[in-house]
Amino acid sequence: MATGISAGSLGLSSFVLATEPIGPSKRGAVGMSTFYFFSGGIMLLSGLALLTPSWRQLCIVSSIPSLVYGILVVFFLEESPRWYLVQGRVNDAMKVLASIARWNGKFIPEDITVTIEKEEDDIEGSIQHEQEDLQGESVPKLQNSQVTHHQASGTIFDVFRVHPTRIRMFIMTFIWLFVAVVYYGVSLNVSNLGTNLYLSVLLNALAEMPAFVLTAICLEKYGRKRVLIFALLLGAVCCLLGSLVPEHEENGVSNYHLTLSVQDFVLSKTVNGSVMRLVCGMVAIFAMAGAYNLLYIYTAELFPTVVRNAALGFTSQAAQIGAIVAPMVVVLGKLHGSIPFASFSVVSFLGGLIVFKLPETLHRPLYETFEGLQRSERIRN
């Protein structure tokens, strides 16, 4: 339980921290690039599971890299400058921006104005480029500024209190639930295919890699909404095709024990059915991996900074519920092999339909407060 809580919090916080400093034009590509490591970890895990005889040993071996990385990376992490601004800590935000600029071989302009909307007040400061010695580093100093140090904050209850975010939260919660059911369900359904479990998990993880690349490209061209709809409908079609493949005659036959030669290249009917379902599952995983990871970007852009972490945390909990439901659907494959794929097809199709109710966020700014988001909604409507 402690591992699950820590892993879930780590993933959400890391994603928000990585994307908040990024501008709208590059946010999609940066957000999608963070997920290559997730699929890479699954591929490594399949190999470790094959080589490790005990699940206890597997837990120990897979935990060591995380421990070492966590100790090393803590010294290089910076807080989100956007969060600092929302809290009225403009000097701290400027220090982070100066550090980012220094890593990129740039510098902060001499005279800039930092403006951020508050629900009641505006933070607006005139930043003069003066130097101060702070632990041996030169950073811009805020002087003669008129900054309201009112701290803006929000909770998940505020999300449901405000009309635009309340509607978005209901819709996104169901979408996260549906996507998780299909994503984890198709991944776990390899146990019903009669193929080698380790190889199937490896291939499914490998199928996710091109999904990240194509999704990142399509995000900037077609927008978040249309790409998500396409991914969900593609997953629905692939799962539907998988459900239409006839069941193999001998349940339990595994490709792992099958030896093929050049002369014996023609596969049996049993293997053909399993391979066809595996291919349908891989394409479905391709679509759902793109949809799943796109949801992080889309959700982060739909909610203001003051509740962004809370909104992502709430919707991701719906995904965890989906991960719990998915194995129950997979077990139904023991009754008939078509049931899991057919169920995933319906769920994915429903998810694609309700996305139509969401607004597009392509090239739109990340709103800091509810007031800014509500003002934008009034203008848009």
From TrEMBL:
Family matches, as Gene3D superfamilies: MFS general substrate transporter like domains
SUPFAM superfamilies per record: MFS general substrate transporter
Any single Pfam family the record assigns to this protein: Sugar_tr
Membrane topology annotation: Multi-pass membrane protein
Gene Ontology CC entries for this record: membrane
Compartments, as annotated in UniProt: Membrane
Keywords for the protein's UniProt record, in alphabetical order: Membrane, Transmembrane, Transmembrane helix
Domain Major facilitator superfamily (MFS) profile per the UniProt entry, residue ranges: 1-363
Transmembrane regions listed in the UniProt entry: 34-51, 58-77, 169-186, 198-219, 226-245, 275-298, 310-332, 338-356
GO MF entries: transmembrane transporter activity
Protein name (Swiss-Prot/TrEMBL): Major facilitator superfamily (MFS) profile domain-containing protein
Species for this entry: Ceratopteris richardii (Triangle waterfern)
